Amino acid sequence: MNKRISIIDEEIESLKKITENKKQAKDILKKYKHISKLNKVIVDEFIDKVYIGVYDKELKSRDIEIEWNFEF
Q1: Rounded (to 5) percent helix, strand, coil in the chain
Q2: Which residues of 29-59 are buried (b: 16+ CB within 10 A; e: fewer)?
Q3: DSSP character at residue 62
Q4: Helix (H, G, I), strand (E, B), or coil: what is residue 44?
Q5: pLDDT value at position 9?
Q6: Pick from 62, 55, 57, 35: nearest CA to 46
Q7: How confident is the model over 18-58, as pLDDT tens digits?
Q8: Which of 61, 62, 65, 72 could pair with 51 as two cysteines, CB 3.0-4.6 Å apart?
Q9: What is the rounded (10 degree) CA torsion for 48, 53, 55, 60?
């Protein structure tokens, strides 16, 4: 029974974090609803990391992956 309570408590904490992240995302999206230019401050609020792959000479392209600061 104690193990089940512990698992439920962990799930509750996880859901609280998800809810807070969604609230933060909503606030940020509202804040920048009518931007005309991107700047470093705005980009930093939206993007956590950018992964740039190796350039493929044959395809003349590279993979780019963006890790966002929050879930949409």
Answers
A1: 50, 20, 30
A2: eeeeeeeeeeeeeeeebeeeeeeeeeeeeee
A3: -
A4: helix
A5: 95
A6: 35
A7: 888 888 888 888 888 888 888 998 888 889 999 999 999 99
A8: 65
A9: -80
Q: For residues 50 and 69, give the distance between their C-alpha atoms in angstroms, rounded to a whole number.
A: 11
Structural domain of residue 24, as residue ranges? 2-68
pTM of the model: 0.52
> How many structural domains is the chain composed of?
1
Comparing CA positions, the residue from 67, 72, 36, 40 lying closest to residue 51 is 67
Type of residue found at 2: N
Q: Is 45 left (phi over 0), alpha (psi -120 to 50) or beta?
A: alpha
pLDDT score at 38? 87
